[in-house]
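TICKET: design request
STATUS: open
ATTACHED STRUCTURE:
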């Protein structure tokens, strides 16, 4: 199994600040000599979770047939994950929320509800970095706290260890992040840091996912 890091972009705007940050994350991953791949969610056609619960029995999303079927294998084979979302209305974008909701199929549940649950992604030592881009400055004013939390909590529940978070504030105009080398350097540094961790970790067994 190739040690790999998947960068998932939740911006609906092509060539914007989130895309630029992803390129710098990938540069850092390459510096660590680890395979990196980007997934820009706007390029995929998929629906939000309908709550059909078929995945509780089938262990995969069988209730919907769409482009998430191309993304699931990439999630499963990647030891590391980076999520990047601009702040929309104090939270992650709608497409990032839909993506996260569609990861529900990786959970196993007891028959009783509510009851115990576990994640099939939670036993392989997976690591993650999350990043958000906001126009406003400040945690409450920009919605940065809620946006990062909306990515952090689901990933932790799925079994990822969040090794770092990158809040980017005061940036909105397309490409403006290029004026802030400190944010670009941070993205490269965190990409390299995650890459080194993945490179030096034991190759996990993904056969039971």
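STATUS: resolved
RESOLUTION: sequence designed for all positions
ATTACHED SEQUENCE:
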């Amino acid at each position: 199994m190739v040690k790999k890091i998947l960068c998932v972009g939740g911006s609906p705007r092509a060539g914007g600040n989130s895309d630029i940050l992803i390129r710098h994350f990938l540069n850092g991953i390459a510096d660590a000599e680890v395979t990196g791949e980007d997934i820009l969610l706007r390029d995929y056609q998929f629906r939000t979770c309908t709550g059909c619960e078929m995945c509780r029995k089938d262990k995969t999303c069988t209730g919907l047939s769409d482009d998430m079927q191309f993304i699931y294998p990439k999630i499963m084979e990647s030891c590391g994950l980076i999520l990047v979302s601009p702040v929309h209305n104090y939270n992650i974008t709608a497409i990032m929320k839909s993506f996260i909701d569609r990861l529900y199929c990786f959970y196993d549940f007891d028959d009783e509800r509510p009851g115990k649950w576990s994640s099939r992604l939670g036993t392989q030592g997976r690591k993650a970095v999350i990043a958000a881009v906001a126009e406003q400055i400040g945690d409450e004013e920009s919605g940065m706290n809620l946006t990062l939390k909306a990515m952090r909590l689901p990933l932790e529940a799925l079994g990822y260890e969040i090794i770092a978070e990158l809040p980017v504030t005061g940036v909105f105009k397309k490409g403006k992040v290029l004026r802030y080398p400190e944010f670009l350097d941070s993205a490269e540094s965190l990409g390299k840091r995650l890459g080194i961790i993945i490179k030096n970790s034991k190759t996990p067994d993904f056969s039971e996912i």
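CLOSING REMARK: The longest strand covers residues 161-168. The chain has one domain: 4-200.
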